[in-house]
Specification:
The complex is a heterodimer. By secondary structure, chain A is mostly helical. Chain A has 19 helices and 2 strands. Chain A has 3 domains: about 15-60, no CATH class; about 65-170, no CATH class; about 200-420, Orthogonal Bundle (MetI-like fold), CATH 1.10.3720.10. Helices cover about 65% and strands about 0% of the residues of chain A. By secondary structure, chain B is α/β, with parallel strands linked by helices. In chain B, about 40% of the residues lie in helices and about 15% in strands. In chain B, strands 1, 2, 3, 4, 5, 6, 7, 8, 9, 10 and 11 form an 11-stranded mixed β-sheet that branches. Chain B starts with 6 loop residues before the first helix and ends with a helix. Classes of the chains: A mainly alpha, B alpha/beta.
Chain lengths: ~425, ~375
């Protein structure tokens, strides 16, 4: 045994060096572990990372202009828009060639829709012109300038060409500018006209209302979580079922129930009128506004606050409170100095859950929010499903994601993420 | 018929599967052509509307051809979903029911097949070609209209006193008709009505609305009733609000009001004045396999013939899009009442109608919607 140090590398039973053999065993173990989590990893990659990456990309992607009108974009490069003159025949000829190809592929109306986001009216210019230009011959029908202007006088408008020139870039900041109530014009980025600014306001409102919802969830949830943790098992179980019950009911049903309760001919108003607390004319407006959204969403998100608080409180031995009191603390001091600090991780976890969930909430504000209680997510949904401006929707979504990550980072700095316990 | 037609359909995809027996397949060998798919997915709005299509088109078609029909109530999100399916290269829908504005966009995006009415659709029984039978209603080369519906107002008969409203401007008259109104949460239709009641002539409405001053004018008019408006997203909202007595009058689709008045017997009446006509109909998605495309074309040809369109009016009060179907409209299948007077196109109801300008809204929708939403949020 004593001479092993001199006989070179330590060997394993099969004669290979021990280091190598160990490394192989470790590698094998790692591969096995990786294989075990591979399904989850793949799932997360395919269903989460790839779509989010695509969304991020969509918010700046703008291939359509240069792909549909390659010759025009090339020809416009030498055109100086600030001179105040229409482009020359070369640009029109390039445009006619591009259009003839695009009409065959039915791409021109897509481009029209895209450019219509930037300048109202371009969509029908492309649609109407496509019918005629599609029948032209790129050689025999030249020159095109006057012909195009005859087809639609929009082609004689210098602004049309400036818009095409401005938005020819393959990667555009335009959607992000739109998302913060600005726009990309031929003269650079400017703010939207006052009567079209809404998105910043909605972002602010979403954050503000989410904070209020989170706050009311803490206020309402804390006593219930405390009861759950401190009642005898039997009662606590029944209470827990009551907390979980809403999870088993459809979200739409719960939201609609608030409608029935809160509307002006609804249950609460009827009772108040019957009791004589308010007059028939003075019925309270409690729905289709911010109040309705806050009430309904607090109700819906409350379990997400109670459960983490409950599981944290459960681990706090009751003897701590008794010890504090036996050392002379009042009820309040014992609670505030001894009990409460230990529940902070639960509050933190619940707050993060509720806040992040409510920031992206869509259906409840849509139903009970009226005009003042809707969130940014309702606008995102509009751009996804109605206006089909997916670029703008992606930009809005990206900003929302960034805001959430930023807040998460702030939270980590202030409270510390290690302080969060889900159970 | 627009956004979120009914709530139950937005979340749930209630897929009804119509299975026909093998006997039916044997009974109709002439139609069980081998080059067509035996299964198809039809997308529509759900609720009473889908039911009327099921009874008028789908059941007879399945019986005749042995095709299995799967229903998906996704029309409210059809444009976005079709675009996503097309990008993914896997279109799972065969025939899709959409409103005209959506059909125009689908056609623009190259997501719908171009239809040749005279070749692809059945002529009228008297031989009139389909292009003439549908006439002006063929608003897009991809679109096969099915019904004419209108967005119009209903009012509570017990909340308007002795002088029920007869004029669209009653909506803006808070003195004569105090109380809440419900309007759709989008600029389309509301802006037009506001301008009409602000003294703009019917023929000039869209010229005025194309200018920023005209848009401000319309919003200023809407501003006069803004405090008294409940804004709706789903077609079922106004009927519910009327039934609860939450609003004194509200806009919605005429078929919804028909069921509140005739089927649920609520104290509600129609204010047909300045009703806005719109269309609902079929498109066939682009990118189907040849077998599925053949099946879809065959179905659409059957479902939009003169008799089938007239049959649908037995179950719902929307007017058939073919001129030749109008004389065939009979009685309601369950209530037994004459359906013709409940059609938006009936001469008594259509004394003053307003035509929705598709081209205008295709251009101005995003621009005016941004303004409208900003105005709403003020």
């Amino acid at each position: 045994m004593s001479d092993t140090a001199q006989s070179g590398p330590v060997l394993a039973a099969d004669g290979t060096p021990l280091k190598k053999s160990l490394a192989r065993a470790l590698r094998l173990q790692k591969t096995r572990a990786l294989l075990l989590i591979a399904p989850l990893l793949l799932f997360v990659l395919v269903s989460f990372i790839v779509p989010i990456g695509q969304m991020l990309w969509r918010s700046v992607e703008n291939d359509i202009v240069s792909d549909t009108l390659p010759l025009t974009v090339q020809a416009l490069k030498t055109w100086d828009a600030s001179a105040g003159e229409l482009p020359d025949e070369a640009v029109y000829a390039a445009f006619a060639r591009d259009m003839i190809v695009a009409v065959k592929a039915k791409e021109h109306t897509k481009l029209g829709t895209r450019l219509n986001y930037e300048q109202t009216g371009i969509s029908s210019m492309f649609r109407q012109s496509g019918r005629k230009v599609g029948k032209w011959d790129p050689v025999a029908d030249a020159p095109f300038k006057q012909k195009l202007i005859d087809v639609h006088d929009g082609w004689g408008d210098i602004n049309t060409w400036r818009v095409i020139q401005t938005h020819a870039r393959k990667v555009t900041p335009g959607y992000f500018l739109n998302a913060i109530d600005m726009r990309l014009t031929p003269d650079g980025a400017t703010t939207q006209p006052e009567d079209k600014r809404i998105l910043i306001k909605l972002f602010g409102r979403t954050l503000f209302m989410s904070l209020i919802i989170m706050g009311s969830c803490i206020l309402l949830g804390y006593p219930i979580a405390w009861l759950l943790a401190n009642l005898p098992m039997r009662q606590a179980n029944i209470l827990l079922i009551l907390v979980l019950l809403p999870f088993w009911t459809s979200l739409l049903v719960r939201t609609s129930a608030w409608k029935v309760l809160l509307q002006s001919q609804g249950v609460i108003n009827e009772i108040l009128v019957w009791l004589g607390l308010i007059t028939d004319e003075g019925r309270l407006v409690m729905i289709n506004n911010q109040f309705g959204t806050i009430v309904a969403m607090t109700h819906i998100l409350l379990p997400f606050m109670i459960l983490p608080m409950y599981s944290v409180m459960q681990t706090i031995p009751q003897t701590y409170l008794r010890a504090a009191k036996s050392l002379g603390a009042t009820n309040w001091t014992a609670f505030w100095r001894v009990y409460f600090p230990q529940t902070v991780p639960g509050i933190g976890a619940g707050s993060i859950l509720v806040f992040i969930l409510s920031i992206g909430y869509y259906i409840t504000p849509e139903i009970v929010g009226g005009t003042k209680g809707v969130f940014i997510s309702n606008r995102i949904a509009y751009h996804i499903s109605s206006s089909l401006n997916w670029g703008l929707a992606a930009a809005l979504g990206t900003i929302l994601l960034a805001v959430v990550l930023l807040l998460y980072w702030c939270y980590d700095k202030i409270v510390g993420i290690d302080n969060v316990k889900l159970g | 018929m627009r956004v979120n037609e009914n709530m139950e359909s937005t979340n749930m995809k209630m897929k009804t599967i119509l299975l026909t027996t093998a006997a039916a397949m044997i009974a109709a060998p002439a139609f069980a052509a081998s080059h067509m798919a035996n299964e198809m997915t039809i997308v529509s709005w759900g609720g009473a509307y889908s039911k009327s299509q099921l009874l008028a088109y789908d059941e007879p078609y399945s019986e005749m051809t042995g095709t299995t029909i799967i229903h998906d109530d996704s029309s409210a999100e059809a444009v976005a979903k079709l675009r996503a399916m097309n990008e993914a290269g896997n279109v799972t829908w065969d025939v899709v029911d959409v409103v005209a504005a959506d059909a125009i966009r689908l056609c623009d995006e190259g997501l719908a097949l171009v239809i040749d009415p005279d070749k692809d659709l059945a002529p009228a029984p008297d031989g009139t070609p389909a292009s003439e039978d549908f006439g002006d209603l063929l608003v897009s080369e991809c679109y096969i209209p099915q019904i004419v519906y209108s967005t119009t107002f209903g009012y509570r008969t017990d909340m308007v006193g002795d002088t029920p409203p007869t004029d669209i401007c009653a909506v803006f008259d808070l003195e004569a008709y105090p109380g809440k109104r419900s309007l759709e949460k989008r600029p389309i239709n509301n802006m037009e009505w506001a301008l009409l009641c602000d003294g703009v002539a019917k023929g000039d409405v869209y010229d005025v609305l194309a200018t920023p001053e005209g848009q401000d004018k319309a919003l200023a008019k809407l501003d006069t009733i803004k405090d008294q408006v409940i804004w709706w997203n789903a077609g079922a909202d106004t009927p519910q609000l009327l039934a609860d007595g939450e609003v004194v009058m509200g806009s919605t689709y005429n078929g919804r009001l028909f069921s509140v008045i005739e089927e649920q017997d609520q104290p509600v009446a129609m204010l047909w004045d300045a009703q806005v006509f719109d269309l609902d109909g079929w498109i066939i998605p682009a990118g189907l396999s040849p077998e599925r495309e053949a099946r879809a074309r065959d179905y659409v040809r059957f479902a939009t013939d003169t008799q089938r369109l007239a049959d649908q009016a037995k179950y719902i009060s929307y007017g058939p899009a073919r001129m030749s179907s109008a004389p065939l409209v009979g009685k309601h299948a369950e209530l037994g009442i004459d359906m013709a007077p409940h059609m938006p196109t009936d001469p008594n109801n259509a004394k003053n109608t307003f035509l929705y300008n598709y081209e205008f809204w295709a251009d101005y929708r995003d621009d005016i919607d941004a303004k409208f939403q900003a105005w709403l949020a003020q």
